[in-house]
Amino acid sequence: MKYKIPTGTKDVLPSDIHKWHHMEDKIRDVMTRFNYREIRTPIFEYTDLFKRGIGEATDVVGKEMYTFLDKGDESLTLRPEMTASVIRSYIENHLGEQQPLNKVYYLGPMFRQERPQKGRLRQFHQFGVEAIGSPHAAQDVETMLVSLTVYEELGLRNLSFKINSVGCRDCRPRYREELVKFLNGIKDRLSEESKNRMASNPLRILDSKNKGDVEATKNAPLMKEFLCDSCAPHFAEVQKKLKDHGIEFQIDGRLVRGLDYYTKTAYEIQSDDLGSQNALGGGGRYDLLCEDLGGKPTPSVGFAAGLERLLIVMESLPDSSIPVSGLDVYFIALGLRAQDALMPQMHAIRRRNLRCDIDFLQRSLKAQMREANRHQAKKVVIVGDQELDAGEAVIKTMETGEQISVPIAQLVEELTRR
Ligand code: HAM
């Protein structure tokens, strides 16, 4: 093979596309019911947006971005996530001046140069929401309900939320100091990667998957013990509201997430059916991002979730039945004369909203019948020279095997009759 697909990317083949349409239709449907409207931003942005928005000390910015100079020597980056782009667009288009709360959603490809494995790709797809403008815990919980509703209506079970509060710029510095003090005491037991994070991003050490790190930091102080008078009640309120909705959650004091913009609530939604990459999605509050990117202070919260991971879980469900819709009518023309007679009829029927096809390979009756079955056609229309001479067509209903003859001129009427 001379040409191969780039590492960490995947084709979605026509035989699988119905699964993607099924997920995408459900996502749009749920978003509409929750009154989120779609926003589409460019696939690439100026690199500085992500550096500033996501944080230079994060893995995403430090190691994983697809960054390149264009022919005008501008540094551009393929978007690794959407929150920074959405806030850039919110500020640039003055969306806050039109209404005080903007609830938006998105669906599309993101790019991170990670080591590929099951559920981890370099081009992957996310759906997500951003609710820009509300500081209240109810808004945090609504974003969680959006993701839960999408998953549940796609048949997923065994879901759970992990939640934490990562504090704010008032309470986090004091916590960070305490954490660094603790980490200095156990420094020798940390992995090289965690040692490197001591100065730049010590909080991330807490969600290291390295066994030695987990053991060494077992008694580390946690952010939730340091929350200020604004963050602590907010966190309590989120928990109360989740309980009011009967939503299962665990508090995970080590959950810090990989992006620097979070304040207060951070959460992940997990599936027990996913294996090692068990985060289906994640999100949280980011009350300072808008002002960090040059806008007015605007408290916001959102989440994003991977479609590839969602699909892995959907395909593993025991009763996984992702609907495939077959053809309404398959036209079997035996000979070119018959094809000429049938094509205008087929066109008229397609215009009346039925899904139809005809054989373009001039194959035998048997081969065309096989094709009709492959496409799960509900009906086939058969016309050969004999039928043509009589001005008739045979309509066969596949489920019952029943056949009737109708004048070719009445095919449209016959096939579109309810
Ligand atoms: P994130 O946790 O970086 O958050 O990504 C969210 C989800 O995207 C992950 O839970 C996972 O399902 C999927 N994902 C991330 N990287 C990959 C990958 N390499 N391959 C496959 N799937 C992946 C964000 O992106 C934030 N923007 C979420 C957010 C929105 N926070 C507030 N608003």
DSSP helix fraction: 25-40%
Compute the gyration radius: what is it? 28 Å
Stated plainly, the CATH topology of the largest domain is called BirA Bifunctional Protein, domain 2
- β-sheet strand percentage: 15-25%
Bound molecules: histidyl-adenosine monophosphate
Q: What is the averaged pLDDT score? A: 95
Overall shape: it is elongated
The secondary-structure class comes to alpha+beta
**CATH architecture call of the largest domain:** 2-Layer Sandwich
N→C terminal distance: 50 Å
Q: Give the number of domains.
A: 2
Helical segment tally? 16
Task: Give the CATH superfamily of the largest domain.
Answer: Bira Bifunctional Protein, Domain 2
Sheet with most strands: strand arrangement: 1-5-6-11-10-9-7-8
User: How many DSSP E strands?
Assistant: 16
Could you describe the largest sheet, including whether it forms a barrel?
Answer: 8 strands, mixed
Low-confidence stretches: none
The CATH top-level class label of the largest domain: Alpha Beta
